[in-house]
Amino acid sequence: MEWATEQGWRSLVLPGRVFDIQAFVPGSLQRAQRLTVYIEGDGLAWLDRHTPSFAPTPVDPLGFRLAVADMGAGVVYIARPCQYTFGPSFKGCQQKYWGSHRFAPEVIESMNDAVEQLRRRYGASELVLVGYSGGAAVAALLATRRSDVAALVTVAGTLDTDLWARTQRVSPLQASLNPKDVASRLASLPQWHFVGQKDLVVPGSVLTSFLMGASGQDREPTRSPVIQVMPGFDHQCCWAAAWPELSRRFAGPAAGH
Length: 257
Known about the structure:
The longest helix has 18 residues, at 105-122. This protein has helices at residues 2-6, 62-69, 105-122, 134-143, 161-168, 204-213, 239-246; strands spanning 9-14, 21-26, 34-39, 46-48, 51-52, 75-78, 126-132, 149-155, 191-196, 226-230. The chain has a single domain, classed as Alpha/Beta hydrolase fold, catalytic domain (Rossmann fold). The chain is built from seven helices and ten strands. β1 and β2 (21-26) form a beta hairpin. It is globular, with a radius of gyration of 17 Å. The protein is 26% helix and 20% strand. The chain is an alpha/beta fold. α2 runs parallel beside α7 (239-246).
C-alpha cells in the first residue's frame, strides 16, 4: 500500500497454516515492551446487499489510519484474512471468510498466530488490542485466548454479532464466534469502548448488549469499562481526526528503539 510507505511504515506478511496475514509496521520500530496491535474492520465484504466482493481489502482502511494516528509507542497494524494479500498469500481465501465465517474459529486462530509472531518479533511482554468495527470482535475474542493482554480498546465495535445482524437485517453469522458469549471472561480486563453517536452501521445498542454479557457469573468485574460516546461521529467520521487525542487515554509506556 503506497500510503503506508508514505507514512514510514513497511509491509510484513505473517505466514500461517490457513491464512497469511498482512501487517504493516513502523520502519523505525525495533523493540517494544508493550505492543499496541490495531486490527482492521471487515473491509469490502460486500459490493451491495446481495453480492459478496472478490476480496475484502478495505477501500478506506480506517483501522490503519487509526494506527498511524496513535500517539503512543510500539504500534503495529494487522489486516484481516484475505485483505491486501494476493498470489500464494491469498491461500485459504473463500468468500465465506468475509461473510458467515468472518469470525470462525480458524480465523481467530490465524489472527492469534499473527499477533504472536509480532509479539515475538518485537520482544513485547504485554499487548493492547485495538479493534475497529469487525476488528473489535476479533480483538475481544483474541483477548479471551491470551494471558498477555493488558487492555482491550474498541472503536465502533461489532461486539454482539447476533444483535448486529438483526439491526442490519442480514443473515446471522452462524459459523462465527460471538464476542458477547465470552464477554464475562473479559470482565476484569481494562477496556475502552468508543462509540459514534450517529453510527447506524454498529449502533450503541451492540456495545450495550456486549457489556450486559460481561456482567455474567464467570468473573466479577474489578473495574468498569470506559465508554465514550462521540457526538456527531458515525461509523467512519470522524475517528482518524480525533484519534491523536483519544489514543492518549490508553497509551502505554514508550517503546525501545
